[in-house]
């Protein structure tokens, strides 16, 4: 392993926070220390790079916080980094602090940012996929997805109890800005009657077919992704059109899905990808995202990392089977 070139890594979290980010930060610090590399953390995503807002990282301090949700480095969506002016300031910060590599934990927007930044900055960048939405190619799972699904499940189970007690139709909106992964996983595993996602056009037809005859002693549970083109309000009014007698409520789970301690799976993913990202830098890799494909570590060039707008065929078949 060649560790001569990299002496000082900068790391930051960016975009929406996700459970598991702290595990990854801990693993990065631990691996870097073991190979004699200094690590600095930039606070608030690209904003910290622009403002030179950085803190020294010591693994024993991060060890205490590895199990916590959120990100101890804080995160942000930075308008200033979208402008060349902002990116030039970020470059000055890196030069002034002699940072010779960057690791970013975030979603596809963060990686697009790195690609744009690479036009004026030629130090190596490594990405770690961190978003609850799980909508990034090049990895089976993103950091935080499993925890968010677990939170959604826990809450949907509770809603189902009250829905059954009152024979109510409940529409539960889960997160996923443009993606249905949280909805599919949480809907299937809570026995939802209908699951609505942006990637499917048929799901709404199945829902109306089912709900028009709904007149039972059970709950009728609809899990809808916030990214779905129809949305909870319209779904509600369409249900009332086809079945005016239903007693219906809408619950939005919202940001509760982003918080909480990470699941075992997300903690392990954070540790694996944190270690992999430092190792990738030591091996001379640049501008790649570290992910896990078929449970094997995998590096994908940023240029090939895209926002996933399709769920895989197997999940679509499940949706078809359980949605009808
Ligand atoms: N094309 C781009 N050029 C420069 N910076 C970008 C670009 N796209 C996104 N970014 C930066 O990445 C940040 C995070 O992206 P965002 O889409 O909000 O979250 P995520 O990384 O979770 O997808 C943005 O706030 C912006 O600062
Ligand atoms: O916290 P905000 O800025 O309101 O963003 C909400 C969005 O962030 C997410 O929670 C995760 O998005 P990211 O891709 O930025 O991680 C989406 O599911 C949701 O639409």
UniProtKB/TrEMBL annotation:
One Pfam family per UniProt: PFK
Catalysed conversion reaction: beta-D-fructose 6-phosphate + ATP = beta-D-fructose 1,6-bisphosphate + ADP + H(+)
Family: Belongs to the phosphofructokinase type A (PFKA) family.
Top class in the EC scheme: transferase
GO molecular-function terms, A-Z: 6-phosphofructokinase activity; AMP binding; ATP binding; fructose-6-phosphate binding; identical protein binding; metal ion binding; monosaccharide binding
InterPro entries tied to this protein: ATP_PFK, ATP_PFK_prok-type, Phosphofructokinase_CS, Phosphofructokinase_dom, PKF_sf
Protein's name according to its UniProt entry: 6-phosphofructokinase
Gene Ontology CC: 6-phosphofructokinase complex
Pathway in which this enzyme or protein is active: Carbohydrate degradation; glycolysis; D-glyceraldehyde 3-phosphate and glycerone phosphate from D-glucose: step 3/4
Subcellular compartments: Cytoplasm
UniProt cross-references to PANTHER family, sorted A to Z: ATP-DEPENDENT 6-PHOSPHOFRUCTOKINASE, PHOSPHOFRUCTOKINASE
Cofactor entry: Mg(2+)
SUPFAM superfamilies associated with the record: Phosphofructokinase (SSF53784)
Organism of this sequence: Aequorivita vitellina
Keywords annotated in UniProt: Allosteric enzyme, ATP-binding, Cytoplasm, Glycolysis, Kinase, Magnesium, Metal-binding, Nucleotide-binding, Transferase
EC code(s) of this entry: 2.7.1.11
Record PROSITE patterns: PHOSPHOFRUCTOKINASE
């Amino acid at each position: 392993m060649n560790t001569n070139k990299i002496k000082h890594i900068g790391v930051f979290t960016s975009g929406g926070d996700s459970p598991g980010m702290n595990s990854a930060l801990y693993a990065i610090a631990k691996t870097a220390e073991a190979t004699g590399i200094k690590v600095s953390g930039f606070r608030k995503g690209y904003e910290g790079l622009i403002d030179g807002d950085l803190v020294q990282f010591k693994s024993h301090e991060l060890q205490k916080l590895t199990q916590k949700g959120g990100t101890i480095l804080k995160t942000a969506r930075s308008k200033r980094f979208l402008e060349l002016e902002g990116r030039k300031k970020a470059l000055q910060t890196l030069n002034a602090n002699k940072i010779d590599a960057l690791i970013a934990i975030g979603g596809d927007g963060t990686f697009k940012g790195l690609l744009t930044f690479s036009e004026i900055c030629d130090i190596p960048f490594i990405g770690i996929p961190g978003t609850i939405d799980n909508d990034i190619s090049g990895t089976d799972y993103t950091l935080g997805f499993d925890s968010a699904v677990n939170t959604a499940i826990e809450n949907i189970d509770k809603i189902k109890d009250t829905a059954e007690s009152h024979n109510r139709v409940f529409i539960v909106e889960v997160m996923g800005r443009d993606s249905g992964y949280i909805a599919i996983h949480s809907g299937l595993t809570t026995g939802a009657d209908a699951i609505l996602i942006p990637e499917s056009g048929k799901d709404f037809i199945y829902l109306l077919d089912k709900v028009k005859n709904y007149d039972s002693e059970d709950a009728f549970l609809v899990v809808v992704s916030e990214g779905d083109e129809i949305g909870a309000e319209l779904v509600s009014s369409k249900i009332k059109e086809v079945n005016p007698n239903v007693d219906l409520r809408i619950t939005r789970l919202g940001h509760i899905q982003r918080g909480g301690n990470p699941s075992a799976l997300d903690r392990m993913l954070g540790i694996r990808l944190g270690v992999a990202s430092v190792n990738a830098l030591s091996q001379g890799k640049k501008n790649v995202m570290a992910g896990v494909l078929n449970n094997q570590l995998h590096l994908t060039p940023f240029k090939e990392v895209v926002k996933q707008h399709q769920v895989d065929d197997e999940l679509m078949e499940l949706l078809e089977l359980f949605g009808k």
